[in-house]
Amino acid sequence: MKETFIQHKTFEKNELPIKGEYENCQFNSCNFSDSDLSDFKFIDCSFNACNVSLVKINNTVFQDVKFKDCKMVGLLFDTCNSFGLSFSFDACQLNHSSFYKTKIKMTLFKNSQLQGIDFTETDLTSAVFDNCDLSQAIFDLSILEKADFRTAYNYSINPENNRIKKAKFSVLGLSGLLDNYDIEIEK
After folding, report:
1. What is the pLDDT of residues 56-69, one digit of tens each?
2. Given 3.30.1330.10, 3.40.20.10, 2.160.20.80, 3.90.1860.10, which CATH number is that of 94-187?
3. CA atoms within 13 A on the CB side of 50
């Protein structure tokens, strides 16, 4: 059975795509909440003001995909196709999603809520967390080398349990590196 290939198309509102490969497509104000996008392929696509919360993304391909102003609660990115996995997030709500064991080097997270995210064993080398809320995010055996946390806040990262060589932090965020020592820091 031949796979559907769609290129340079814009999807609006509640228009649901059919299973296939989408290249250079835009999805604007679409509600995919609780949908099954497993085995879809999205290459050089953008999602703007979409709700993709609780969507099944088993073996889904995301290559050079941009998410802006999207609600993306409870997504299991660790079930995606790992080949070429790359995306960026701007002003998105990614709370309670999982990136467990994914390799997402140089990913940009900007102005986003990342509360309760699971970054366990995730390779975030050179990732940027620009003005992101990381409260209750889990960093365990994560690779955070050269990652930029200078404007991120509410994070708790154990330097003994994560690789943080050459990562960037602000003076105000240093307390997030000392949480596991149960010490009091006064400002």
Report:
1. 999 999 999 999 99
2. 2.160.20.80
3. 29
Q: Residue 6: beta bridge partners?
A: 22
Residues 6+ apart with CB under 8 A from 144: 124, 125, 127, 157, 162, 163, 164, 167
Residue in the block written with tokens 């088993």: 58
Domain locations along the chain: 1-68, 94-187
Q: Judging by beta carbons within 10 Å of its beta carbon (0-12, 13-18, 19+), is residue 176 exposed, middle or buried?
A: buried
User: How many CB atoms neighbour CB 14 within 10 A?
Assistant: 9
Segments in the chain below pLDDT 50: 1
| pTM, entire model | 0.94
Structure tokens at 102: 């994914």
E-strand ranges in 8-52 read 10-12, 20-23, 26-28, 41-43, 46-48
Task: State the Cα–Cα distance between residues 157 and 179, nearest whole angstrom.
Answer: 8
**Rg, C-alpha atoms of the chain:** 17
Nearest-angstrom CA–CA distance, 60 and 42: 8
